[in-house]
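User: quick one, fold this
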Amino acid sequence: MYFDKFPLLTYLKDLDGEVRRQLVTDVLRRVQIKTLGKEESTFFINYDMKNGDTPESISDRLYDSTSFFWVVLMVNDALNPYYDMPLDSISLENYVRKKYDGKYFYLVDPSDEKKVSGLTFAPDETIYSSSNVQDDFGTTQENFAVRARVVSHEPTLARVFVDGGEHTYFNTDKLIGVIRGSDVHQAKITRIEDGMFALHHFGAGSTITYNPLSSVTGDAPLGLTATSGSYAAVGPQFYETKLGVYLGISGARNAESAINNFEHETNENEKRRSIKLVHPDFIQDVVASFEQLMQN
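Assistant:
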């Protein structure tokens, strides 16, 4: 690993993020002042990374040596060269597939499918296939063989994220159960999505985000007016919100303005392409300043 060979990177990596960024900024500013007060536009070069670029290859092309790769990382606060720098298309797909490995279950109230489920779930809790069928003793017939582990619960999106080998046997419009004490609590699955291409958020482009509980025609949250931001006497019902329409709770499903996990991670990956590089005229001054930092 880079950190094993370069004590400076190890030192910076262990600092709080804000402290690290301020330290690097201060050192670079001191170098700029020492080098005849060069403006940032002269001191730095703006560069958009391309597929196949690595800190080493950039260092080699700009500084005629791969040994300054750590400066490329440090200046861009990219101490993890794999995740802090843009990934190529294959690596990005593998990363997203691994990060979102599982299924999302969108849950509604079994007695009124136009309402979200009121259940809350804890990480590592087990859910299983349930039903409304009861035996002669009034016990609900559960299918404990079909089960999944809850990874996370996202109430604002009315869903749970699950893993576990049995999750593929859950179906939409079926009940799930969870045991709390001696009681069985149920919710109904209204939609199942594969993690990689599941909803991440509602928005436009890579910068605008909409509240999932806002109405389809506005961006105010449930119970708020779009114009004043004050609470309305009657807010939109769940099935009238962006999330409700996305799930097709009442009427045709509409995925307009929905950004899925793969699209979100692709947008974030593209943002990392724009980096800044120390001009070759000042690289030795930067190296000397950071070497002095490590000696103090």
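User: anything notable?
Assistant: The longest strand covers residues 143-154.
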